[in-house]
């Protein structure tokens, strides 16, 4: 891909540099090469085209900029979405289903899933220093009508920082008798219904300690059109543009865990290739939960009403 930039100035000026910048979900610079130097911009306009750059599938932030003696001056940021042509084949096709949870039968807690605590939380049941108001309560996870429903409600506890905790739910394969872990080569897919209430923080993710986390999805309704996909094993991230969820909307989100790239799919279409992947010997437990934002990076809930997040199934193929 190349980018073409057109600029005008009310009177002719010469600037040191003009270019087009691109950033991924972790703000890593992926600028188009071939910026124009000592560019003269006049009322009649200035046009130049960058040299080409290849991008993996994903959604990026891009913006034009110029530099003069006073510094770096960015113009308005826009989104750049790159789609992998010919790669939109459902990755579960031709693979064997190796693990499935459809929530159609009563869950025997402790056998496949646990819901009391997670080692990802500093205190097992809560983790206020990680921008969360969560206090895990097994009663806030229920299995009904073939779905796992996670509910967050204002709780009675107060953290040391003075913020009120919210009772909420999490399920994990950690500490279960089965002890299922995801491994390289697995494709995991979930079908979920995202919440719309500001302050909600639903997640499907892996964990086995620092460096073991892959976020199949994270979502914050204050940015209703962005679905977050993050590789914390070999740092990479993406914000996929979605239609803001409405009442009753369900979506399928999956990630193929390769050793050279982790590839994310939404409703069967490839939307992001991180080009990093996981270590060949990597493995991690599976978590599904509803967190509540503390206000550090995303707003706290604007209501005291219960917030819900639902999962229809979790499937793993190889």
Question: Short description, anyone?
Answer:
The protein is mostly beta strands and 318 residues long.
Helix count from the secondary structure assignment: 0
The description of the largest β-sheet is: 10 strands, mixed
Number of domains: 2
**N-to-C span:** 33 Å
CATH-level-2 architecture of the largest domain: Sandwich
The residue fraction in helices comes out at under 10%
Total strands = 24
Q: What structural class should be given to the helix and strand makeup? A: mainly beta
Name the helix and strand elements from N-terminus to C-terminus, one letter apiece.
EEEEEEEEEEEEEEEEEEEEEEEE
Large-scale geometry: globular
pLDDT average, as an integer? Answer: 95
Low-confidence stretches: none
Radius of gyration: 22 Å
Q: Within the CATH hierarchy, at the fold level, what is the topology of the largest domain?
A: Jelly Rolls
* Binned strand content: over 45%
Query: What is the name of the CATH class of the largest domain?
Result: Mainly Beta
How is the topology of this model organized?
Layout: E1 4-7, E2 13-23, E3 36-41, E4 46-49, E5 58-68, E6 71-74, E7 78-82, E8 97-101, E9 134-136, E10 141-144, E11 147-158, E12 164-168, E13 170-172, E14 181-182, E15 187-193, E16 200-207, E17 214-219, E18 226-231, E19 236-241, E20 251-257, E21 262-266, E22 269-273, E23 284-292, E24 307-317
């Amino acid at each position: 891909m190349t980018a073409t930039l057109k600029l005008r100035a009310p009177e002719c000026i010469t600037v040191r540099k003009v270019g087009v910048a691109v950033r991924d979900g972790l703000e890593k610079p992926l600028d188009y090469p071939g910026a124009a130097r000592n560019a003269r911009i006049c009322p009649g306009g200035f046009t130049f085209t960058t040299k080409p750059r290849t991008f993996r599938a994903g959604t990026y932030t891009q913006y034009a900029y110029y530099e003069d003696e006073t510094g770096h001056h960015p113009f308005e940021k826009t989104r750049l979405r790159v789609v992998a042509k010919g790669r939109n084949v459902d990755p579960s096709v031709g693979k064997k289903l190796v693990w499935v949870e459809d929530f159609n039968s009563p869950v025997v807690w402790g056998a496949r899933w646990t819901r009391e605590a997670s080692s990802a939380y500093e205190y097992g049941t809560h983790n206020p220093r990680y921008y969360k108001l969560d206090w895990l309560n097994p009663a806030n996870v229920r299995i009904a009508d073939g779905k796992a429903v996670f509910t967050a409600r204002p709780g009675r506890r107060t953290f040391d920082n003075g913020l009120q905790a919210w009772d909420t739910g999490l399920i994990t394969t950690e500490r279960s008798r089965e002890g299922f872990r995801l491994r390289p080569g697995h494709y995991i897919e979930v079908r979920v219904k995202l919440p719309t209430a500001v302050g909600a923080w639903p997640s499907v993710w892996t964990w086995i300690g620092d460096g073991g986390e892959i976020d199949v999805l994270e979502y914050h309704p204050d940015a209703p059109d962005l679905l977050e996909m993050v590789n914390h094993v070999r740092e990479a991230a993406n914000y996929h543009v979605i239609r803001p969820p409405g009442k009753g909307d369900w979506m399928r989100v999956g990630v193929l865990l390769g050793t050279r790239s982790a590839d994310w799919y939404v409703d069967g279409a490839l939307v992001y290739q991180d080009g990093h992947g996981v270590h060949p010997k990597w493995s991690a437990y599976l978590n599904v939960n509803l967190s509540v934002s503390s206000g550090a990076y995303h707003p706290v809930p604007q209501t005291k009403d219960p917030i819900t997040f639902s999962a229809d199934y979790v499937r793993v193929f190889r």
